[in-house]
UniProtKB/TrEMBL annotation:
A Pfam cross-reference name: PhyH
Transmembrane annotation, as ranges: none
Keyword annotations of the record: Dioxygenase, Oxidoreductase
UniProt protein name: Phytanoyl-CoA dioxygenase family protein
Length: 257
């Protein structure tokens, strides 16, 4: 599998704030990865963070687990895979890329709710704005089971307020009268084993899952080397001995590319 992106893909990301990259997993890797993520989602973990109770209203948006790598070596293999980090490095143009956290993101069948329009960066404890996510589809995704949508160029409006994913505010109220009103969201249907990258500033949304099976996705959040912890609360940093103003480093935030 290649880790080289084309100039067109890099230019598209820099202009639009997201890019689709097909076939980032081989068929064998996809099979293995699905097995690992099934195991990781079932296990009671010491270190991974499952932050939504079953049957709660959050669960209808997302059944999620953060930092699966800390309990499951197979998940660590994919979370730290240099292929993904090298792509993130090419997209951002950063000298180096560090790992922030991984994120198993399942949309469960049965009264599923969309993931409302939001930016990711307001939730992350950093002031720099070049961090980004890879979102890897482990199932084929379309509007019926929770594929993503992105607003092209919305990353240029800068960091807004964090949106409550259960009782969402309308993010577009913050961009009234700007070019964002005219932008058509792009629906990204993908085959399992393909991915998107999106900037922490890009407006994105995921459809509800109206099928009988979970929609399984895995995200990894990457940040340019030199990104600094700003002291904001976050599940990943709350138990770390980081002081505000300190660059992310060490074994929890390894440099991967
Ligand atoms: C989702 O997987 O439904 C949302 C992912 C994201 O917000 O980045
Ligand atoms: Ni998001």
């Amino acid at each position: 599998m290649t880790n080289r992106l084309s100039k067109e893909q890099i230019d598209f990301y820099q202009e639009n704030g997201f890019v689709q990259v097909d076939d980032v997993l081989s068929a064998d890797e996809l099979q293995e990865f699905r097995q690992y993520i099934e195991e990781a989602m079932q296990e009671e973990n010491q270190n991974a963070i499952k932050n939504n109770a079953q049957n709660g209203s959050y669960y209808r948006v997302l059944n999620q687990k953060v930092n699966t790598w800390r309990d499951h070596g197979g998940m660590a293999r994919y979370a730290f895979h240099p292929r993904f980090a090298q792509m993130a490095r090419q997209l951002t143009g950063a000298d180096g890329i560090r790992f922030f956290h991984d994120h198993a993101l399942w949309k469960m069948p049965g009264d599923s709710k969309p993931t409302p329009w939001h930016q990711d960066l307001p939730y992350w404890p950093m002031d720099q704005d070049k961090a980004l996510s890879i979102w890897i589809a482990l199932d084929d995704v379309d509007e019926n089971n929770g594929c993503m949508m992105f607003v092209p160029k919305s990353q240029t409006v800068g960091k807004l307020k964090g949106i409550d994913l259960v009782n969402p505010q309308d993010i577009f109220q913050f961009t009234k009268g700007t070019f964002v009103e005219e932008q058509r969201p792009v629906i990204v249907r993908m085959k399992a084993g393909s991915c998107t990258f999106h900037s922490g500033l890009t407006f994105h949304y995921a459809h509800a899952n109206n099928t009988a099976n979970p929609r399984r996705a895995f995200a990894i959040i990457f940040m340019p080397d030199g990104t600094v912890y700003n002291g904001q609360r976050h599940v990943v940093t709350d138990d770390c001995a980081l002081t505000p103003g300190q660059p992310f480093a060490g074994g929890r935030f390894p440099r991967l590319a």
